[in-house]
Amino acid sequence: MISEYDKVKAILDSCGVTDIDEIEYGGECFDELMDYFADEMPYGVMKARTGMPDEWIHDKLCDLGFDKEFA
Questions:
Q1: DSSP string for residues in the chain
Q2: Residue ranges of the chain with pLDDT lower than 50?
Q3: How many domains are there within the chain?
């Protein structure tokens, strides 16, 4: 069974991201992460009405441990 960490790491690796601060709002990696987290992200955040999707994704990546060195 592949963990959520491994799935997200594969997305980051495919985009060449070694630091989560490299993820650009609207960039390829951001779009892939939006697609991956679409079922989990609250609708209001996804539409940037009740929160910012980039902040939500950053917080989620930190929760998964990507705020530490992972390359």
A1: ---HHHHHHHHHHHTT-SSGGGPPTTSHHHHHHHHHHTTTS-HHHHTTSSS-HHHHHHHHHHHTTTTS---
A2: none
A3: 1
